[in-house]
From TrEMBL:
GO BP terms in the entry: carboxylic acid metabolic process
Lyase listed as a keyword: yes
Keyword Oxidoreductase: no
Name by which UniProt lists this protein: Putative amino acid decarboxylase
PTM-bearing positions, type N6-(pyridoxal phosphate)lysine: 294
Molecular-function GO term, any one: pyridoxal phosphate binding
Cofactor annotation: pyridoxal 5'-phosphate
Keyword field: Decarboxylase, Lyase, Pyridoxal phosphate
């Protein structure tokens, strides 16, 4: 054995303790760490021929790379929709690496059963019925890929062909309808061979990102009975708008379509009694995307894909090899997602759900929603600042006179907060997304003061 490797094995308890202490120091300073300054990257190093051991690597990381890492796990990182990692989920994630289970099959481990249990808990949390099954994937993009791949196979079923066997060319023309699809949906269509041009944007309601259901019905009617895919949105990126899922699902009595709902973070509205009505009808979907490293606050990368048609899911993703079993009533996860080898992402989610339960996560969601409303109210009182939409859930979208790009840089370089730019209905602006378990009213007030200074 390499002497450095042997030495690290012999000193493993001390090494893990040193790593634990280092991580504790990082997390203890997270609230005051510069949130997302634009750092100057170190000059590239050459591949080491002779290593320095794990302790040396930790020291080198601390000096060379750690100073440039963002505080994205902290309370004032409001860019994109980024959660943090609850203490329990972090513990689960560390054990995921320590146990190093390949969750792709059920041979010799209960890891796959833990994933099934966790997916079932999440299904119940979001109000989906027993007809749904879930599998873990890397993020919302891959969840949308899986859901739309199943939808693609359903289209083939309607036309009497198997896309998994014959290829997407057997479908002919495909139509995908959506009001305000997330960019990952468009990416998924390209990856699946359906193509970006298959997407037809349907008009939305006035001053809304929610689809006009009457316009959607007209678009379906124009297809003359040809089956289609409808992508509904439960929480759009800019304004967290929600399609009327129940009304959309009701259209299936007249028109054949697969209903895929992108509820990447909007599904968590189900945890807030005041906002649960926004996801009414989510259980009427055929497939649902939920991103867990957003509002569940588990470490990257983690999402779940739910569907009613596991049989079609297996048909798409089945991996046939002599050393793999045939998919039965409880198929190995290798037959359910694009990955063959896959880390046990479910363990971090299992830990945080076990540790804090539905009530603990409901408190996080409600506190983040309150923080968004607090920021929205305070921004609306600032001279020149204008909200571009009502604060519906956890995102504040606003504009102001001046250079948006320059403001983004100035806010980031101040180190107090991080927001991302956007364009809403042709108007450049900023969006602040709240989904971190640490965020408090005091953090909101610090963000307001930073914005007051840099939006002037």
């Amino acid at each position: 054995m390499d002497p450095l490797l042997a030495g690290d094995l012999a000193a493993l308890p001390e090494l893990l303790q040193a790593t634990r202490d280092y991580a504790t120091r990082l997390l203890a300073g997270l609230g005051e760490r510069p949130v997302a300054r634009t750092p100057e990257a170190p000059s590239p190093a050459t591949l080491p021929a002779h290593g320095v051991g794990a302790a040396g690597a930790l020291d080198l990381f601390d000096k060379r790379w750690a100073p440039g890492f963002s505080a994205s796990a902290g309370p004032r990182y409001l860019g994109f929709v980024t959660g943090g990692a609850t203490p329990a989920s972090l513990a689960g994630d560390w054990l995921t690496g320590a146990l190093d289970q390949n969750g792709s099959n059920r041979s010799g481990s209960t890891a796959a059963d833990l994933e099934d249990e966790t997916a079932g808990w999440l299904r119940d949390m979001f109000g989906l019925g027993d007809g749904f099954t879930g599998a873990f994937v890397s993020g919302a993009t891959m969840s949308n890929v899986v859901g739309l791949a199943i939808a693609r196979e359903w289209l083939g079923e309607q036309l009497g062909v198997s896309i998994a066997q014959q290829g997407v060319g057997a479908l002919g023309e495909v139509t995908v309808l959506s009001g305000t699809p997330h960019s990952s949906t468009v990416k998924a269509l390209a990856m699946l061979g359906i193509g970006r041009d298959a997407l037809r944007l349907v008009p939305t309601l006035p001053d809304r990102e929610a689809v006009d259901v009457a316009a959607l019905e007209a678009a379906l009617r124009d297809l003359g009975g040809r089956p289609a895919i409808v992508v509904a949105n439960a929480g759009t990126v800019n304004t967290v708008d929600f399609d009327d899922l129940r009304a959309i699902a009701a259209l299936r009595s007249e028109y054949p379509f697969w209903l895929h709902t992108d509820a990447a973070f909007g599904a968590f509205a189900a945890l807030s009694p005041e906002h649960a009505h926004l996801v009414d009808g989510l259980d009427a979907s055929d497939s649902v995307c939920v991103d867990l490293h957003k509002w569940l606050n588990v470490p990257y990368d983690s999402a779940v894909q739910f569907t009613r048609r596991r049989d079609l899911q297996v048909r798409v993703f089945q991996n046939a090899a002599s050393y793999l079993g045939e998919p039965g009533p409880r198929p190995d996860h290798v037959h359910l997602t694009p990955e063959n080898s896959r880390r046990l992402r479910a363990l971090a989610a299992w830990f945080t759900l076990t540790a804090y339960g539905t009530e603990g996560h409901r408190e996080i969601v409600r506190r983040d929603i309150a923080a968004a409303h607090r920021l929205g109210a305070r921004l609306a009182a600032l001279p020149g600042v204008r909200l571009l939409s009502p604060v519906r859930l956890n995102v504040v979208c606003f504009t102001f006179p001046g250079d948006v790009a320059a403001a983004v840089r100035a806010i980031a370089d101040a180190g107090e907060a991080f927001l991302t730019p956007t364009v809403y209905r042709g108007v450049p602006g900023l969006r602040a997304a709240f989904s971190n378990w640490r965020t408090t009213e005091a953090d909101v007030d610090r963000v307001v003061e930073t914005l007051r200074e840099h939006l002037a």
